[in-house]
Amino acid sequence: MARRQSRADIVSGAIIALTAMAGVAVWSRLPAEVAIHFSASSTPDNYVSKPVGVVLMPALMLATLVVLEWAFRYDPPDVPQVAATVTVATMAFMGAIHGLVLAWNLGYQVPFDLVLVGSLVWAVLIVGYAVKMEYEHG
Question: What DSSP assignment string belongs to 102-118?
Answer without folding.
Answer: HHHHTT----HHHHHHH
